[in-house]
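Repro:
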Amino acid sequence: MTAPRSRSAWLTDMDGVLVREGSAIDGAAQFLDRLRELGRPYLVLTNNSIFTPRDLSARLARSGLSVPEENIWTSALATAQFLADQVSAGSTSGPVGTAFVLGEAGLTTALHEAGFVLTDTAPDYVVLGETRTYSFTAITQAIRLVEAGARFIATNPDATGPSLDGSLPACGAIAALIEKATGRSPYFVGKPNPMMFRSALNRLEAHSETTMMVGDRMDTDVVAGIEAGLETVLVLTGSTALGQVSTFPFRPHRTVDSIADVVELV
């Protein structure tokens, strides 16, 4: 039998795990309290690149959950970190990277703080994130910049996002439009790319062998966690129902009803 793994650090998805439709899920506050009580390093992860960590911390506080902004890791932050690493490894523009961005404050702020100059003149990268209103003019400009040689990066592959009125086109859908027009595929940094988890581990200075990942989606949270070498916990309060688990060619290490069942694992 495999020996139980030490659980010294934690990663957890946000929507469907800690909150649902703006309200805290039962057990979420207790889970966060337990992490703080035991001094466990942790990050709350989200593919949403619209909001800054400060924005998300305030939104979680309104739902009754206390999560400092330094404990939030978004696909925008992971993307900015990835691109900063690329620039330091050797960029055509020298020590400063340049990018044309389709996105909101969460993405533009992260790129600014990583040292990028945002421009529409011969940028190194076209960076696509989530936004509330995609501009046809901006999409057209992105297509032309990619055709001219800019490298195409996207924060996450989610094709749709939720709203009170139904699904909304999201980053993955707009990325597909640009890809179809240019013939250039984007590099997605966010889940299910394990790159996002590895950047989170670096942020925590944690090791994959002693880190747990809690998520609600088999096709993003669980598969990326497995590929990053983490022990995974699937909660059934979000996107994946119990009956769907067996349809995937991989399995979470544990499946539980909700985050309330994870408290005792901390």
